[in-house]
Amino acid sequence: MIRRLVPHPILAGLLLVLWLVMQQSLSPGNILLGVLIAIGVSLAARPVLVEKVTVRRPLKVLQLLVVTGLDIIRSNIEVLVILFQPRLAPKSHFVEIELELTDNFALAIFACIITATPGSAWLQYSRQRSCVLIHVFNVDDAEAWARTTKARYEPLLMEIFE
User: Fold this and answer.
1) pLDDT exceeding 90 applies to what percent of the chain?
2) Would you say the C-alpha torsion 100, 130, 71, 115 has a positive or negative sign?
3) Backbone angles phi and psi of 149, in degrees to 5
4) Distance from C-alpha of 161 to C-alpha of 35, rounded to nearest angstrom
5) Which residues face 125 on adjacent strands?
6) Is 94 in a helix, a strand, or coil?
7) Which of 42, 86, 123, 139 is close enough to 12 for a disulfide, judged by CB 3.0 to 4.6 Å?
8) Distance between CA atoms of residues 145 and 97, nearest Å
9) How far apart are CA 88 and CA 64, in angstroms?
10) Directed axis angle between helix 28-45 and helix 9-23, to 10°?
């Protein structure tokens, strides 16, 4: 019965927590509204999220969150320095990274990480070549950036989801 009402409980739980954090209130009304939103989104996501998501190593999720958070902060600072010092011209590149990831949810998380990090954007994914095209706002050595990005995120995502 519960699985029919909340087909994606992890998604619903995260949405409820996010709602309450954004509202900065634990009032009964906010909790009720957050539960209703979480259930509604979980039901709406049922046709889209057809495969079951399995988190194999939950503690690695925390490690991924810390690594990603630190990278986002560092990238924000780098972009701000470039924007506030116009004489520093950014060296943008299109970078291809060959991936070993096959899990759709892990690929989606990787895309979110890349796009959420200021200065980089996930542009295209080729399933046949297992390759992603990313635009990087400022990078001196595109190949080193690709190796570093792959090494930072892909092993964690594989441990978590594959």
Assistant:
1) 48
2) negative
3) -65, -45
4) 27
5) 132
6) strand
7) 42
8) 10
9) 31
10) 140
* Entry pTM: 0.74
Instruction: Please write down the long-range contacts of 141-146, taking CB distance under 8 Å and 24 or more positions apart.
Output: 142/93, 142/95, 143/95, 145/93, 145/95, 146/95, 146/96, 146/97
Task: Please state, in angstroms and rounded to a whole number, the distance separating the CA atoms of residues 152 and 135.
Answer: 18
Q: How is residue 47 written in tokens?
A: 């046709």
Q: What is the pLDDT of residue 1?
A: 62
Q: CA 96, CA 101: separation in Å to the nearest integer?
A: 14
Write the DSSP assignment of 46-74 as a string of letters.
Answer: TTT--SPP--S-HHHHHHHHHHHHHHHHH
Q: Residue 131 is inside which H or E element, if any?
A: strand 131-136
- Structure confidence at residue 150 (pLDDT): 95
d(CA 111, CA 121) in angstroms, rounded, equals 8
What's the CA gap between 128 and 36, in Å, rounded?
40
Q: Are strands 93-98 and 131-136 parallel, antiparallel or unpaired?
A: antiparallel
Extract the tokens encoding 94.
């299109």
Q: Which of 133, 127, 161 has its CA nearest to residue 146?
A: 133
Task: Give the per-residue pLDDT at 54.
Answer: 77
At CA 91, angle to CA 140 and CA 135, rounded to 5?
95
